[in-house]
Amino acid sequence: MELWLSCAIGFLVFCGIYLLLRARTFPVALGLTLLSYAINLFLFSMGRLHTGMPAVIGSAADYTDPVPQALVLTAIVIGFAMTAFVLVLALRAHVLLGSDHVDGHEKKTEEGA
Amino acid sequence: MNHWIMIPVILPLLLGAVLAWLSDERATLQRRLSLAGSLALLAVSLLLMQTANQEQVQIYSLGNWSAPFGIVLVLDRLSALMVLTTAVLAALVNGYACAGDDKRGRYFHALFQFQIAGICGAFLTGDLFNLFVFFEILLIASYALLLHGGGSQRLRSAVHYVVLNLVGSTLFLLGAGLVYGISGTLNMADIARFVQQAEGDSLYLMHAAGWILILVFGLKAALLPLHFWLPRAYASATAPVAALFAVMTKVGLYAILRFVTLIYAAEADAASAFDLDLLFAIALLTLLLGALGAFAADTLHSMLAWLVLVSVGTLLAGISLASEQSIAASLYYLLHSTWGIAGMFLLADLIARQRGKLAARLRTGPPLLTPARLGALFFVGAIATAGLPPFSGFIGKLSLLQSASGPYAAWLWPALLLAGFVVIVALSRAGSQLFWQQGSPLPEPVEPLQPVRFATALLLTGSAVLLLVAAGPVLDYCLTTAQQLLQPELYLKQLEGG
């Protein structure tokens, strides 16, 4: 289970970083989202991986750590708000600057493209 | 429990909520409330400073959950000093904004108060995850404040600023998660205790987590490889916002100082994996790069933004030396640079207002309406910023230079003095261009200098004189702060319950 989870997190981070390095604001916003998903999974796994155990002490023989779950909830809420903000900002930049390039203007075509 | 510790967070937060709810037609009421809040914060922070100076480290357990389990706010000399720095800056900048800049966009006062709440919270909290939350509060307020006033230039720099800081936030979570996964706690005192006893794999992992977190704090503080966002963002922000942002880089530096003295304190001595020489090298490079950037800047605003980098480099050099004298010198320099640079940002705005379309571009322009007053203030501010005698910048730099010894001194002296020299040249070039080389006057009349704006700029820039007059007591306080920081066991006492 640990191996699969770490592979999944790694793949999400890989996709996130790839998209983050794109020059358009929409892929960048998607990249940020994927990256925050990966980090949320990572945070969640920091309480160690268990199946079928409650996050309450005393109600079963063993329990999972409730703190990372609380942290992930907070991180998800904050991440949502931030993603919404980035999207609004990207839209406004696109409308106002007439370009969805992250620098706000198209690169001068030096490559002769 | 001393409930006053909670006030610097609660007061601006509630006030911000009320201000956001008030409609923008009631501008006078908004301004009065916001100013009253800032002044009340100033009074509370003075009170906290007095409390922190009399007794040992005080804690405030939220919801009365005791130390390692609940979230605590911690009041020691350092956090009191940082809150006071913020409160003074906020009150004056708020006064400046109320002279008209707050109406250039919506919700200025609400965002301003939220930003203050986030900054004060970051200084006071004793919990790593709570620090993350306060960072997010101050960041989201700063995203919107950066856009205040509108315009495509601001929008462009805001996209970079927001994306970079969101990546920083995910890295923060990565570091905090790693710390929790290894040590099983998020209370900073408890983490420090864990690191003291850790060995083998868990110690190495804690080092990795520590460096990830320092990377994040370095991004906020705009240290060398992570500084690209700062000059553009600060130069394009509205004057009061840029002035308020003068304290934002200090939040990152504060976090680095807290980590280095509290959590990795034992490691720093042992010259193990967590050695501070890397930070020292980064500090010097940041310092030199900032000076070069200031030299190359083509507007006064971007020159000031690069000067923020110079101050960040100087401060980090003091922190990474991690001795009593160097930390004390850094704290003194922190006060000076925060207020001084903020005052210079306000002053730059006043100058730009009198130059028509040319604004703060460093070219020969129309004669200013009030050259004597603005020129004199620029002169004082420039001398203080460059670190020439007699003002506070000189005292700060001198005590920092004196605190370095051995090979560190051999690196610090030339770097600091060279950067100082380049800054002097840059500022005198800017000053002579703005005040002496004059072209034809503007066709249309400019708005007269508003006394409120001038007074707040004067007070912030003039803090250099105040810090000079009060240098003795202020340096003493900084020294006792540094002594307290270098005895982490005082901070760890909160774990014993009470």
UniProtKB/TrEMBL annotation, chain A:
Membrane topology (UniProt): Multi-pass membrane protein
Lineage: Bacteria, Pseudomonadati, Pseudomonadota, Gammaproteobacteria, Pseudomonadales
Annotated compartments: Cell membrane
Membrane-crossing residue ranges in chain numbering: 6-21, 28-50, 70-91
Family: Belongs to the CPA3 antiporters (TC 2.A.63) subunit C family.
Pfam families cross-referenced by the UniProt entry: Oxidored_q2
Name recorded for this polypeptide: Multisubunit potassium/proton antiporter PhaC subunit
Keywords: Cell membrane, Membrane, Transmembrane, Transmembrane helix
Source organism: Thiopseudomonas denitrificans
GO (cellular component) term, any one: plasma membrane
Automatic annotation (TrEMBL), chain B:
PANTHER family: NA(+)_H(+) ANTIPORTER SUBUNIT D1 (PTHR42703:SF1), NADH DEHYDROGENASE (PTHR42703)
Topology class, membrane: Multi-pass membrane protein
Annotated protein name in UniProt: Multisubunit potassium/proton antiporter PhaD subunit
Main location per the UniProt record: membrane
Keyword terms: Cell membrane, Membrane, Transmembrane, Transmembrane helix
One GO biological process term: ATP synthesis coupled electron transport
Gene Ontology cellular component terms for the protein in this record: plasma membrane
Entries under InterPro entries matching the protein: CPA3_Na-H_Antiporter_D, NADH_UbQ_OxRdtase, ND/Mrp_TM
Transmembrane segments: 6-23, 35-52, 72-95, 107-125, 131-149, 161-183, 203-230, 242-266, 278-297, 304-323, 329-351, 372-391, 411-431
Pfam families according to UniProt: Proton_antipo_M (PF00361)
UniProt-annotated location(s): Cell membrane; Membrane
Record-annotated NADH:quinone oxidoreductase/Mrp antiporter transmembrane domain positions: 126-415
Provenance organism: Thiopseudomonas denitrificans
Family: Belongs to the CPA3 antiporters (TC 2.A.63) subunit D family.
Gene Ontology terms for molecular function: NADH dehydrogenase (ubiquinone) activity
Keyword hit for Cell membrane: yes
Highest taxon in the source lineage: Bacteria
